[in-house]
Amino acid sequence: QQQVKQSPQSLIVQKGGISIINCAYENTAFDYFPWYQQFPGKGPALLIAIRPDVSEKKEGRFTISFNKSAKQFSLHIMDSQPGDSATYFCAASGSQGNLIFGKGTKLSVKP
Amino acid sequence: GAVVSQHPSRVICKSGTSVKIECRSLDFQATTMFWYRQFPKKSLMLMATSNEGSKATYEQGVEKDKFLINHASLTLSTLTVTSAHPEDSSFYICSAGDRRDYGYTFGSGTRLTVV
């Protein structure tokens, strides 16, 4: 019940295209859903996060869509750029604050 | 924004020795810090949660006597890998934040290699 399932494992997108990464969770007590971007050898950096009281949040080219009834959330990267090539992790957290991470998606944006 | 400084970024040590990794919150008070471990091309696995002034809570399967965590102040937590073995080689990452707003920031990580 603590799992966060993330797909796809890897994704190749052409420059200018839309990258979509999906996550699903089981624990209805989760109330904070962040997305992290990680480059090799670096710690994860928070991209964008959402709470279950809204269905969508947009920050620049990054959008989170949240479906509370389906217990799913997704990250959309619009106008994907080669610099977006990284590993992306979704996560979920409850009142304890500890993050449960998905397995990650390696995104490659081809020029 | 919030900054978490983690040192060292890389360390190589001999089997049987101990290594200390520091995690500092530079511009905010961190009531809670988390320590994660990440294997190559894998996700982050929570090792333990530490709250300032109290003992750390370890996740199942994490040896508390091997991975000593100290959170003596609101700006510093340390992870000490004791009697390190090659299988302890990994990427260790801390995160720090305030429990009230879930605003957790990650350090840059420490690559530990035990030879």
Explain what this protein looks like in three dimensions.
The complex is a heterodimer of chains A (111) and B (115). In chain A, a hairpin with a 4-residue loop joins strand 7 (62-67) and strand 8. Chain A has strands at 4-7, 10-14, 19-25, 33-38, 45-50, 56-59, 62-67, 72-77, 86-93, 99-101, 105-110. Chain A starts with a strand and ends with a strand. In chain A, the strands form two sheets. In chain A, strands 2, 4, 5, 9, 10 and 11 form a six-stranded mixed β-sheet that branches. Chain A has a five-stranded antiparallel β-sheet with strand order 1-3-8-7-6, with no helix packed on it. By secondary structure, chain A is mainly β. Chain A has no helices and eleven strands. Chain B is mainly beta and 115 residues long. Chain B has no helices and eleven strands. Chain B has strands spanning 4-7, 10-13, 19-25, 32-38, 44-51, 57-58, 67-73, 76-81, 90-97, 105-106, 110-114. In chain B, a hairpin with a 7-residue loop joins strand 9 and strand 10. The termini of chain B are far apart. In chain B, 36% of the residues are buried. Chains A and B meet through strand 5 and strand 10 of A and strand 5, strand 9 and strand 10 of B.
Helix content of chain A: under 10%
Element order of chain B: H for helix, E for strand: EEEEEEEEEEE
Helix content of chain B: under 10%
Number of strands of chain B: 11
Determine Rg of chain A (CA atoms, Å): 13 Å
**Regions with little confidence, pLDDT below 50 for 5+ residues of chain A:** none
Query: What would the principal axes of the Cα set say about the shape of chain A?
Result: globular
**N-to-C SSE series of chain A?**
EEEEEEEEEEE
Structural class of chain B: mainly beta
Main pleated sheet of chain A: 6 strands, mixed
Structural class of chain A: mainly beta
Q: How many angstroms does the end-to-end distance of chain A come to? A: 40 Å
Q: Could you report the average pLDDT of chain B, rounded to the nearest whole number? A: 90
Overall pLDDT confidence of chain A: 93
The DSSP helix count of chain A reads 0
